[in-house]
Amino acid sequence: MHEGEKRIHVVKNGARRHPEFFDSEKLHKSIAAACIGSGSPTGYAESIARKVTDEVNQWLQTRPEVTSNDLRRTAAKHLRTYHPDASYLYEHHRSTL
User: Of all helices (H) and strands (E), which one includes residue 60?
Assistant: First the structure.
């Protein structure tokens, strides 16, 4: 968590998992990984990940708690603006193809 960042609970999938606090760096890394996985150079992936993370942080400002699914959908929606292929990979990373 960064200084000044609001502490937001993320309710994980599954009944036995405990909520955890939102970590913007964890989100940033997962978005960058989706961009790199879809063929983007590292610098470009990092730039997109920072933009999307900033947009998600704005969205979170009015929410004390979110589900991990809501967080993933929102991040994918913002990522779609910059990199549609990475957005698809990010949103469906656990789906079986």
Answer: helix 42-60
